[in-house]
Write a structure and sequence with these properties.
Layout (H helix, E strand, L loop, with lengths): L13 H12 L3 H8 L5 H7 L11 E9 L2 E8 L5 H13 L5 E4 L3 E9 L4 H10 L1 H9 L3 H5 L3 E10 L7 E9 L6 H19 L2 E8 L6 E8 L1 H4 L6 H17 L1 H21 L4 H14 L12 E5 L5 E8 L13 H10 L4 H24 L4 H15 L6 H12 L4 H9 L2
Antiparallel strand pairs: 1-2, 3-8, 4-6, 4-7, 5-6, 8-10, 9-10
């Protein structure tokens, strides 16, 4: 079986790295060209959005060392921030020492909402909706026979009364809809628009908004891992102590929303990068993740908190787990029209939206481990500033072979500034 360990990968030239990935994933020659030539032309881009005037590219890399459910993966990630790919790959290597990740995903059920106002009798409206669930679900299913044929479609209709709102009594009707391998925004929006007139008739009210919710708490992914304590320790440190420090760092993010916001941002560094690389809607994922972090607080008080659980197990090793909403698709949207996203999907070679969601959860868990391990041991800046020095060298005008040399000197001097980089370039 092939391995996602690619020793020395970062030392290769750009073309050598592309060739290695092309060989690993069995890509076609045209896929190689897409990777080397930025994929999306300005002309193609102008057809994807309104008022197009060009493209805005991001670096695309692959994270290595991932083993998920006993299968190796290379993970395409589009991100501009230094150290993200190195950190997540290193964390995945530690996790592989404990057998890798175990990932799962729920059924891909999205939530559509219909807002109902001017209701003469709120209790009677709730009863009317509940008594006509099957009828409403059948109406929703008529809007997307293709999804129904694939085993998806309406799963439930739920009436949620709000007696006291700033605009008076309100009923919100939820449609739970299985979107299969699509992200499902278009499908769910079409379905709620189709059932809204009938809901108005049943309730005697007036429907206003008919739209999906990005708090997709019925469509979640979970990743778990156990890392041997010895695999956690930087040189000269005790692995069991490091495991305890990581547990303490996670507890900080459970009890304090100010820390939790930064903790969860680190998780999304990884997940967003995979979303962007694969043409998925990272904004929807961000909104859902942060809402979920507040809505499912382990403290039970609705306070925003960490999405992860890291704790030392009975053997002294480190157990980690994450669950979050991940409404992603492998069909439709930018995934099927952006050339680079298509190549990224070929590299991943996933067979379902659930598999992709599980991988993203693993990336988020690994990214979080890398961040809090660094924070709890050497500090976050040591590794980050080494990578940041390269960006400073580029910003100062370093070219080709100068970049690594200038960056290394900036880092050794602990003077990572553009003006110092310019001096070094001028001095040859």
């Amino acid at each position: 079986m092939k391995s996602s360990r690619l020793p020395g990968f970062y030392k290769l030239s750009l073309e050598e790295r592309v060739d290695r990935v092309v060989e690993w994933a069995g890509l076609a020659p045209e896929d190689r060209q897409t990777l080397l030539e930025n994929g999306l032309s300005a002309e193609h881009a102008s057809k994807m959005i309104e008022n197009g005037i060009g493209t805005h590219a991001l670096p695309l890399g692959v994270a290595v060392n991932f083993v998920v459910n006993d299968r190796p993966y290379l993970i395409p990630m589009a991100v501009e921030e230094p150290s993200v790919l190195a950190a997540v790959s290193n964390a995945a290597k530690m996790i592989a020492a404990g057998g890798g990740f175990h990932a799962s995903a729920s059924e891909p059920v999205m939530i559509g909402q219909v807002q109902v106002l001017d209701i003469p009798d709120l209790d009677a409206a709730v009863d009317a909706v509940e008594n006509h669930q099957e009828e409403l679900m059948a109406l929703a299913d008529r809007t997307s026979q293709n999804i129904v044929r694939r085993g998806g479609g309406a799963r439930d209709v739920i009436a949620r009364p709000f007696p006291n709102t700033p605009v008076g009594p309100m009923l919100v009707v939820h449609l739970h809809y299985d979107c299969r391998d699509a992200m499902g925004a278009n499908a769910i929006n079409t379905a709620v628009e189709a059932i809204a007139p009938r809901i108005a008739e049943l309730t005697g009210g007036r429907t206003n908004l008919r739209i999906l919710s990005n708090l997709t708490d019925q469509r979640t992914a979970t990743a778990r891992c156990t890392i041997p304590a010895d695999a956690l320790a930087p040189k000269g440190m005790n692995g069991r102590e490091v495991a305890r420090w990581i547990e303490e760092a996670n507890a900080f993010a459970i009890v304090d929303p100010y820390r939790a916001a930064t903790h969860n941002k680190g998780i999304m560094n990884g997940i967003d990068a995979v979303c962007i690389a694969t043409g998925n809607d990272w904004r929807a994922i961000e909104a859902g993740a942060h809402a979920y972090a507040a809505n499912s607080s382990r403290l039970g008080n609705g306070q925003y908190a960490a999405l992860t659980d890291w704790h030392v197990d009975e053997n002294g090793d480190l157990y980690g787990e994450i669950t979050l909403p991940l409404s992603v698709g492998i069909v439709g949207g930018a995934t099927k029209v952006h050339p680079t996203a298509q190549v990224a999907m070929k590299i991943l070679d996933v067979k379902s939206a659930g598999e992709l969601a599980g991988i993203m959860a693993c990336v988020g868990l690994a990214q979080n481990l890398a961040a809090i391990r660094a924070l709890a041991t050497t500090g976050i800046q040591a590794g980050h500033m080494r990578m940041h020095a390269r960006q400073v060298a580029l910003a100062a005008g370093a070219v080709d072979g100068q970049v690594e040399q200038i960056a290394q000197q900036l880092y050794q001097e602990k003077n990572i500034r553009v003006d110092r980089a310019k001096e070094l370039i001028s001095n040859g």
